[in-house]
TrEMBL record:
TPR repeats lie at residues 314-347. It comes from Coffea arabica. PROSITE patterns: TPR. This is Protein high chlorophyll fluorescent 107-like. The lineage of its organism: Eukaryota, Viridiplantae, Streptophyta, Embryophyta, Tracheophyta. InterPro entries: HAT, Mbb1-like, TPR-like_helical_dom_sf, TPR_rpt. Residues 113-135 have a biased composition (Acidic residues). The keyword Chaperone does not apply. Residues 41-51 have a biased composition (Low complexity). Keywords: TPR repeat. Residues 41-68, 113-140, 592-620 are annotated as: Disordered.
Length: 677
């Protein structure tokens, strides 16, 4: 049994000296006990305590106290002074043992797993009740603000993915999605839309979180003029991806733009840039929309943001270059075209647009070399072959133009535009029967292509077939009467009625054409000439004044372009500041490329055109571009067989374009005899 002895502490002391006596050894072990109060003796300000030496207390003092409190000895406490050894001898014979007196702690009760789960559930229930109480308190304080937010939230679409049921047999591997998308793409390219739609619907069922299926399905539906279904697919895709896929937003915006919903298209383009500010297609598509609406400054701002967030891009540079060319700032346009081709040397569109700029400036050698670069960048590009063929035909190179159009048609047998241009070429320089066959073939390839019907109607009018021309014009308008092509069709039809004397019908057709496109200078002046030929000079002058009053003149800021080019290429700008202080940054481009009349060296136009060609490839090539060799190596075609293939139009679409991998096999085998015409 442990015994405690102490000496009387003073009234202001906070610690006491005690001695521990063990039952086996009577030698005292002294230690200090710190007491959490100032005075142990009773005073006037405290309630009276029992004497410290009292033996009336019987219960042991608590071993651990949570908060400091006054010392109150119990009846079982055995506290003696250091000199009172007699009392210590009597206490040794006490009945209670040390184990009964000193109990450190109770053993913990073992808890089963079921009891733990029940306790956790009770705690979760209590926590949820506390959270509900707090939410009720906060809702009471912010009731007016939450009411406004709830009204605003009802107007916004909720992008919550639908719960997908568990697929029996498990979800297929992701590689199956890639293979299915590729197969659907090939089927759509072969105009097998229904089979492609079934595959894409399965992809959406198994992988609803992947946005590629929605984009592909929406494009296929829009090609079939199923605009409502395509819109529903895009909306479903945005909900399934929680609005985080910019490609779906951008495709949806393009669809709304085609349908004429300009305001909705702007909102969707904005959503695409919010989903991913590095999505260059959204910035470029939005800028093109603003350009069509005449908002040049807004378009430039959007293109600048695209370059800021996405870096150099050939489409952005190309669009800016076209803006500069339209504003007749050709040096800046060439600089931007150069940047576009540097970003992507395989960009056929950039080379083609640059070639058209040089053709407009009558730099024919430079334009021809740029056309060659466009074809080399994309050997099967139908636009490159078409524009190059029309360019050569306009220069009087009829045979070369015909040859280029035939190559383009052989490579792209499903394109009606190439056949349309070839038909007009044959009508002008050959005969109408061959042109009529080509027009019929083009209309079968794409019955909804309006320019084919319009050009065919124009040819029949020139041939004197008035009723046939009217039927063809009516067929073109039945496809879509709101497009720009419909406006041109109405204008051509009005000219036809004017020439045969139906003036009232001609006036109605001209008015309908201007309702579609009020900015058509040709239509306004044709109508004015009609009135003037009839002796209504006053009415003709009114029509001319109406055109100048309602026309929209786009004013572009040239100073903005100069500063913008410094922003898009700061590294080059810093070098220019070091080397060419105070000089025009485009002066070197002008002198080395265009050779404009204001050049310092005063070279002639032919020499400047030669330098333009040198500038395209960096060094002037000694050998000219061999078209026949290029067609044999890159397209595996025989140029001598193009005439034969075109003579039998039914066999043109059946011509198979052999890949370059099979060229070596073809060289090993014997040459096949060419089919007879």
């Amino acid at each position: 049994m442990h015994l405690f002895s102490s000496s009387p502490p003073p009234s202001t002391c906070s610690s006491s000296k005690y001695t521990l006596l063990s039952p086996q050894n009577s030698n005292p072990l002294k230690f200090h006990l710190v007491v959490p109060f100032k005075a142990l003796h009773p005073s006037s300000s405290h309630p009276q305590l029992s004497p410290i030496c009292s033996h009336e207390s019987s219960s042991p003092p608590p071993l651990i106290q949570e908060s400091p409190q006054r010392f109150q000895p119990q009846a079982d406490d055995i506290i003696v002074r250091e000199d009172d050894f007699e009392v210590a001898e009597k206490i040794r014979t006490a009945k209670k043992s040390l184990e009964e007196l000193l109990v450190v702690r109770r053993p913990l009760k073992e808890i089963t797993a079921e009891e733990e789960e029940e306790e956790e559930e009770e705690e979760e229930i209590i926590e949820s009740e506390d959270e509900e109480v707090e939410e009720e308190k906060s809702s009471v304080s912010s009731m007016p603000f939450d009411a406004k937010l709830s009204k605003f939230a009802k107007k916004m679409p909720i992008f919550e993915p639908e719960r997908v049921e568990q697929i029996p047999g498990g979800k297929p591997l992701t590689i199956n999605l890639d293979l299915a998308l590729y197969r659907a793409k090939i089927l759509a390219r072969n105009f097998q839309y229904q089979a492609s739609e079934k595959i894409l619907q399965k992809c959406i069922y198994y992988w609803p979180e992947d946005g590629r299926s929605y984009v592909a399905l929406g494009k296929i539906l829009s090609k079939q003029s199923k605009m409502g279904e395509a819109r529903a697919v895009y909306e479903k895709g945005c909900q399934a991806t929680q609005g985080e896929n910019p490609y779906i937003w951008q495709c949806w915006a393009v669809l709304e733009n085609k349908m004429g919903n300009i305001r909705r298209a702007r909102e969707l383009f904005d959503a695409a840039t919010v989903a991913d500010k590095r999505h260059i297609a959204a910035w470029h598509g939005w800028a093109v929309l603003e350009l069509k609406q005449g908002n040049i400054k807004k378009a430039r701002n959007l293109l600048g943001k695209g370059l800021k967030f996405c870096g150099g891009n050939e489409y952005i540079y190309q669009t800016l270059a076209l803006l500069e060319a339209k504003a007749k700032r050709y040096e800046q346009a060439r600089y931007l075209f150069r940047q576009a081709t540097k970003c992507n040397p395989k960009s056929c569109a950039s080379w083609l647009a640059w070639a058209q700029l040089e053709a407009q400036q009558e730099n024919n050698p430079a334009a021809r070399q740029l056309f060659e670069a466009a074809v080399q960048a994309s050997p099967k590009n139908r636009f490159a072959w078409h524009v190059w063929g029309v360019f050569e035909s306009n220069l009087g190179n009829i045979d070369k133009g015909r040859k280029l159009l035939k190559i383009g048609h052989t490579v792209n047998p499903r394109d009606p535009v190439l056949l349309q241009s070839l038909a007009l070429l044959e009508y002008r320089y050959s005969n109408a029967n061959l042109a009529r066959m080509l027009f019929r073939k083009a209309s079968k390839l794409d019955p909804r292509h309006q320019p084919v019907w319009i050009a065919w109607g124009w040819m029949e009018w020139k041939e004197g077939n008035i009723s046939t021309a009217r039927d063809l014009y009516q067929r073109a308008l039945s496809i879509d009467s709101t497009t720009e092509s419909a406006g041109r069709c109405l204008q051509a039809w009005g000219v036809l009625e004017q020439r045969i004397g139906n003036l009232s019908a001609a006036r109605r057709l001209f008015r309908s054409s201007l309702n579609i496109n009020s900015q058509s200078y040709v239509t306004w002046m044709t109508w004015a000439s009609l009135e003037e030929n009839q002796g209504n000079s006053v009415r003709a002058e009114e029509i001319r004044n109406l055109y100048f009053q309602q026309r929209t003149e786009v004013v572009d800021d040239a100073a903005w372009a100069m500063g913008f080019l410094d922003i898009i290429d700061p590294a080059i700008d810093s070098i220019k500041k070091l080397l060419n202080l105070g000089q025009n940054p485009y002066k070197k481009v002008v002198n080395s490329f265009t050779g404009s009349p204001g050049a310092e060296n005063g070279d002639s136009g032919e020499e400047s055109a030669g330098r333009s060609s040198d500038y395209v490839k960096g060094t002037r090539s000694e050998e000219e571009f061999d078209l026949d060799k290029f067609v044999r190596e890159k397209l595996s075609l025989d140029p001598s067989e193009l005439e034969v293939q075109l003579g039998t139009l039914e066999k043109v679409t059946a011509v198979s374009i052999k890949s370059p991998r099979k060229v070596s096999l073809l060289q090993r085998t014997a040459a096949r005899p060419s089919p007879k015409p």
